[in-house]
Design a protein that fits this description.
about 0% strand
């Protein structure tokens, strides 16, 4: 045990801590505050983009990289981060990720130029890849089995609150202080997490974990995604060298091909290719890619357009999406239970179609926009569609594989969603003809925003058609997979949570983690 670590209360060490104990509440506090930092970061940065861009004289490409630099390293390394926690200690890697994330956040806030901000954001994503899988893994490993569902439920609820407060807090910080405080606020939060984890959280690891880590796969995934992202963003920039753009695209595609080969041959692959042999798993991930690509594009464009074209303040623009989170918090559980009764096929078809309808309503936004008549209806319809979609989609991913593969399946689904958002943010400006500093022009940005909404609505419609054609209604009720968990109830926006099912009196409860309880491997 590390120096300074307090021994868990008597009776809790063997079976785990309880929520009624102070030790259990400290573990929960560390996990909630730690994951809350990443939830906040995923929602507040988009709100700050217009002000950030004006202050640093950044081009649209720089704003895209401000978002994608973080998503790139997070998506490429998040599966590896979970494995590191299982091997070297979940608390240790969680603390390393927290400190890493805080230092990178400080560098983001101090960045004097776009290039340095982008580099710091990439470092921040790498820290998030260590921090994110460990937050719920601490709960899974530390709490007694009978109390784990309640602890995860509290974690999920507070995570939803953090997601809802993110845009409000970000908008207020931008308007009242500076966009830099969107990043600085992570530093005191991280200090609290480290202080709690170092003295109050017990260590856990998978004692059976053996073999080498798939570093080669992680590097190839990062290079592949970076090459394709650079090519898509660069192609839209005036004066971009077409040779460089083409070369980076070729490098990106080649790296992803090599990644597939390496994963097929590796003894300990980061992304086991055999998991895609299950057709329902592959189909659900294809729907995930279409849906979350649309979400990535919408959340990148919407809050910026409200500030550039509609002249909303940062706080008003950030607050505009609050109904989406509220609707998902209120209806996701009902959506999951409905999918249990009628199967996921209809919700996964209707939900994206309703989302698409909400985006079409948002095309009413212009220079004279009124929130109540032009924004709120579209946002509410979009939120209803999202609440209908997300829980059945995640449940289908988990229900389509053997229970012992639930951890790796949800991790793969999380990575697919983040990669979809990454590519959407890179490609959409190119597709809709927005480049350079045109995002400062309300007319030019408004026209591009209308086109982007059509593209995102098309992606959602494609996801609906794909779900109808490929998802079976009985995938959650198959007798062949009796241990498959029922739908997970959550309100993920940026990506589906990395999940490890925990059985409880009212059935399994799911939440974002890559590892199971102590001594369990997420990939079985």
């Amino acid at each position: 045990m590390a120096r300074g670590t307090r021994t868990p209360p008597a009776g809790a060490a063997a079976g785990g801590v309880l929520l009624s104990q102070a030790a259990g509440r400290w573990v929960l506090a560390a996990a909630v505050i730690g994951s809350g930092m990443t939830f906040l970061d995923s929602t507040v940065v988009n709100v700050a983009l217009p002000t950030l861009g004006a202050d640093l004289h950044a081009s649209l490409a720089a704003l895209q990289w401000t978002v994608n630099g973080y998503t790139l390293t997070l998506a490429a390394l998040i599966l590896l981060g979970g494995s590191l926690g299982d091997r070297f200690g979940r608390r240790r890697i969680f603390m390393v990720g927290t400190v890493w994330f805080a230092v990178a956040s400080l560098l983001c806030g101090l960045a004097p130029a776009p290039g340095l901000l982008i580099a710091a954001r990439a470092l921040q994503g790498a820290g998030g890849a260590l921090l994110t899988p460990g937050s719920l893994a601490l709960i899974q490993a530390s709490f007694a089995k009978q109390d784990r569902p309640r602890a995860i439920g509290v974690w999920s609820g507070l995570g939803g609150v953090a997601g809802a407060l993110g845009p409000l807090l970000g908008g207020w910080l931008v308007d009242a202080v500076s966009w830099r405080w969107v990043f600085f606020i992570n530093v005191p939060l991280a200090a609290a997490v480290v202080a709690i984890a170092a003295t109050r959280v017990p260590e856990s690891r998978d004692e059976t974990a053996t073999g080498s880590f798939d570093w080669q796969g992680a590097v190839l995934a990062a290079v592949g995604l970076a090459g394709i992202t650079y090519a898509l963003i660069g192609a839209a920039e005036p004066g971009a060298d077409p040779v460089v753009v083409a070369l980076t695209a070729v490098i990106g595609v080649a790296a992803l091909i090599c990644f597939a080969v390496v994963e097929h041959r590796s003894r300990n692959p980061m992304l086991p290719p055999g998991i895609f042999a299950e057709r329902q798993f592959t189909a659900a991930n294809a729907v995930t890619f279409a849906v979350y690509a649309a979400l990535g594009g919408v959340f990148f464009f919407l809050v910026v357009d409200l500030q550039i074209e509609a002249r909303f303040s940062a706080l008003a623009a950030g607050s505009s999406l609050l109904p989406v989170t509220v609707i998902m918090l209120a209806l996701s559980e009902r959506s999951g239970r409905l999918a249990e009764r009628i199967g996921p096929r209809i919700p996964m078809t209707v939900g994206p179609a309703v989302c698409a309808g909400g985006l079409l309503l948002l095309r009413r936004i212009d220079t004279s926009t009124d929130y109540l008549t032009d924004v709120l209806p579209g946002v509410c319809v979009f939120g209803l569609g999202l609440a209908t979609t997300v829980a059945p989609l995640t449940a289908t991913v988990l229900g389509s594989v053997e229970a012992r593969h639930a951890g790796i399946a949800s991790g793969v689904n999380n990575a697919v969603a983040r990669a979809a958002g990454l590519i959407a943010v890179a490609a959409l400006p190119l597709v809709v003809g927005l480049s350079g500093r045109h995002y400062h022009d309300p007319y030019a940005f408004g026209r591009a925003f209308d086109a982007a909404l059509l593209v995102c609505a098309g992606l959602l419609a494609a996801g609906a058609v794909l779900a109808w054609c490929t998802i079976r209604a009985d995938v959650l009720r198959e007798e062949a997979a009796p241990a498959a968990p029922p739908p997970c109830h959550h309100c993920a926006l940026g990506a589906p949570p990395m999940q490890a099912p925990a059985a409880g009196p009212s059935g399994p409860v799911c939440g974002p983690a890559s590892g199971g309880a102590a001594g369990e491997r997420p990939d079985g």
